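Figure 2 data, in text form.
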Amino acid sequence: MKCMTEPPTRQESRTQFNEDWAATIIGLVLLVLIIIGVIPTGLIP
């Protein structure tokens, strides 16, 4: 039986790669801001 979904194109794969890296970088920046005290601990649940 033939699969109905098509594999992602290069553009879709590249977009997903960029979104993953963007999320990683934003998470690291937030972590650094918390560690150095720019974001007060009261904002962290």
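Caption note: Residues 10-36 form the longest helix (27 residues).
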